[in-house]
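debug: dumping io for the single-chain case to check the tokenizer round-trip. Nothing else runs in this session.
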Amino acid sequence: MAANSNRSALPYYLISALSFLAVGAALVSQHVFSMPPCAWCVLQRLIYLALGVASLAAALLRQGGREGASRAAGVLALAGAASGVLAAWYQYTVAQHLFSCDQTFADRFITQSGLESAVPSLFGIYASCMDARVELFGIEYALWSLALFVILGLGLLMTLLRRRP
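debug: decoded output
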């Protein structure tokens, strides 16, 4: 049974790792390749971190045999993936066409929460959404993020819907 719990927790561990790797890639882009983030970029970092923590909790709870709590954490992670899709879609379709992200939801949330001043290397907003519009392999960062949120969400949905033996 323990081996079965370990196997069934594996998707949650993978989703958590991918979420944390996304934040790592964003930090490398910012600090190594001098790509300053906008408010919507920073909000997506926060969502990836929350999604990663919820997925990690789901994995640990599942391994501990707490199926109901694991399912609840998985649903919370799925809600995070859905909010990430919305944030990335908004950044791509609206925010990056604005001269300033100032006073948008993302800007207000990050600054009013105190995250920007508490951890500026991770949550500092250093560019407008228009200026932060960058491509990687010919595809805009916002679309890469959108795709990853969709993939993570589908992985979570499949994990939540899968029947356990």
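debug: round-trip ok. The mean pLDDT is 89.
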